[in-house]
Amino acid sequence: MTSVETVLTPAEQRNPAEQEAWELAATVCDPEIPVLTIEDLGILRAVQVVDGRAEVTITPTYSGCPAMDAISDDLKSAFTTAGYADVRVNLVLAPAWTTDWMTESGKAKLQQYGIAPPSGNSRAGGHSGPVRLSLAVKCPQCSSLNTKELTRFGSTSCKALYVCQDCKEPFDYFKVL
């Protein structure tokens, strides 16, 4: 793992081989939330193709994320199946991942899957000032704001477990990080 800052290259600045490789990498799903691709989640940071070699850069949602090995293996498999003889997956820790990197499409997919998406922005931009207050989390089942946190950590460290006081359904909330 390196801590080199990687800049996400806008699609209009990628050459055709890198755009094709990006689109291939963007098909890989998160093993913990299979309705999200790594692009939806915002962990796909860069893809380079040099002399037929693919180099994919990803950032874990947190430094101890157990899904990174599976994602790396899935990326290598996808690229090998597509005909790339040499594939390298780099994990970078800086800048640290933030829920701000999730796509709007990814947040909608979370909602449809039954997980409340992150609401608001993180402090990753270096905001300072008053202490942030917790706002109500909308139930992904019935859209009620009458919800209650049961535990800070849900099925993964990225999520908290909530219950809706109206429909009585428990649900995960993808925390703002």
Question: Keywords, please?
Answer:
single chain; 177 residues; alpha/beta; GMP Synthetase, Chain A, domain 3; 2 domains; three-stranded mixed sheet; 7 strands; 21% helix; 21% strand; disordered N terminus
Mean pLDDT: 86
List the strand order in the largest sheet: 4-7-6-5
Order of helices and strands: HHEEHEHEEEE
Instruction: Summarize the amount of helix as a percent range.
Output: 10-25%
CATH superfamily (homologous) name of the largest domain: Fe-S cluster assembly (FSCA)
The CATH architecture assignment of the largest domain turns out to be: 2-Layer Sandwich
Strand content: 15-25%
Number of domains: 2
Sheet with the most strands, sense and barrel status:
4 strands, mixed
Helix/strand/pairing class, anyone?
alpha/beta
Oligomer: single chain
In CATH, the topology of the largest domain is named: GMP Synthetase, Chain A, domain 3
Rg over CA atoms, rounded to whole Å, is 18 Å
Précis, in short:
The chain is of the alpha/beta class and 177 residues long. The chain has helices at 16-25, 38-41, 68-81, 104-113; strands at 44-50, 53-58, 86-91, 115-116, 147-151, 159-164, 170-174.
Structure description:
The protein is an alpha/beta fold and 177 residues long. The chain folds into two domains: 11-91, Fe-S cluster assembly (FSCA) (GMP Synthetase, Chain A, domain 3, 2-Layer Sandwich); 101-123 and 133-174, no CATH class. The protein is 21% helix and 21% strand. Strands 4-7-6-5 form a four-stranded mixed β-sheet. It has a three-stranded mixed β-sheet with strand order 1-2-3. Strand 6 and strand 7 form a beta hairpin. The longest helix is centred in the middle third of the chain and has 14 residues, at 68-81. Residues 1-7 have low confidence and may be disordered.
